[in-house]
Amino acid sequence: MPDFDLHAPRSLREASQLLAEYAGEARPIAGGTALVLMIRQGLLRPRALVRLDRVPGLDSVQLDNGLLRLGAMVPLHTIVHSPLVRATIPLLAQTCNLVGNVRVRNAATIGGNLCEADYASDPPTVLVALDARVRVHGRAGERELAVAELIQDFYETSLAPDELVSEVHVPVPASGMRGVYLKFVTRSAEDRPCVGVATLVRLDADGRVDELRVAVGAVAGQPLRLPAVEREVRGSRLSAEVLEALAQQYAAAVEPVADARGSAAYRRQMIAVFVRRALRAALAGTTGAWQV
To answer: Domains (ranges, CATH) in the chain?
Structure first.
């Protein structure tokens, strides 16, 4: 491991100040499951690491007026087993349970997972579908932005060098909303997804679409949603023809990455396949997250 300064601030303000002093050459560290590996492999050479585990209040799980509030330092394992999360947004708990293995989930945090901006990660896709937002703290104060705005590209976020994510806010889905996340893996059971599709569907009393959200992840620099397409199907019945059209629109909208899990052409085909499958599962009344 290379040499670096190690700091353990006791407040968000102190942490932001430390990050600012290093002018972009310091990294905050939460669980360290990704950052430590990158440093060991020489992909990152920070001058300093700023530990967040001693900042109070970053490990809470609360429900506040229909909003699930997760501290940035909450481990994925805690989200998986939290009675509050499982009762309000079981889709999120089940999705976090698909990440890596139990050793990874015990250490990895929800804030760190989002700020790594790893394109092939499960929680960001589901959080984008859930319209989740993050609270960001910096020297200039606090601000909020959508998870879809936080993740900009491959391993890139919209955070300034002195900013930290302090909380993740997830609106509890309305009654009757069915949520499905499908993770498609092409190698080991613990592998990251080749394609991940999250969908939320709510039908009215006549079986027509009252609300539809689809997010596709692990195929490009950020999870993809097509709000205009989602709006177009409101009031419609999700027939086989409509499902096929939706699947093809999402497949056509992506410029897929090629990596060890699949070529760009293969990923494009799988996007269409898994958008259809996720929507069909939701229409059938199935909810939850699983991998194929």
So the answer is: 5-51 (3.30.43.10), 61-171 (3.30.465.10), 178-291 (3.30.390.50)
Between 140 and 2, residue with greater pLDDT = 140
- Return the residue matching tokens 């967040």: 52
Amino acid at the residue 273: V
pLDDT digits (tens, 9 = 90+) for 58-115: 999 999 999 999 999 999 999 999 999 999 999 999 999 999 999 999 999 999 999 9
CA distance 1 to 53: 21
Closest CA relative to residue 100, chosen from 127, 126, 80, 73: 80
pLDDT tens digit string along 165-210?
Answer: 999 999 999 999 999 999 999 887 778 899 999 999 999 999 999 9
| Interval 5-43: pLDDT, tens | 999 999 999 999 999 999 889 999 999 998 998 999 988
Is pLDDT at 289 greater than 90 in this prediction? Answer: yes
Query: Could you tell me if 180 and 286 are in contact, meaning their C-beta atoms sit under 8 angstroms apart?
Result: yes
Tokens describing residue 230: 């989602």
**Buried/exposed code over 157-184 (b: 16+ C-beta within 10 A; e: otherwise):** bebeebbbbbbbbbeebeeebbbbbbbb
Q: Model-level pTM?
A: 0.95
E-assigned strands of the chain? 5-7, 26-29, 48-51, 61-64, 67-71, 133-138, 141-146, 151-153, 156-157, 164-171, 178-184, 195-203, 209-217, 288-291
Q: Which of 172, 170, 171, 134 is nearest to 151 (CA)?
A: 134
Q: How far is CA 86 from CA 68, 82, 227, in A?
A: 11, 6, 27
Question: Measured over all CA atoms, what is the biggest interatomic distance in the chain, rounded to whole angstroms?
Answer: 64
Pairing of β 5-7 and β 48-51 = parallel
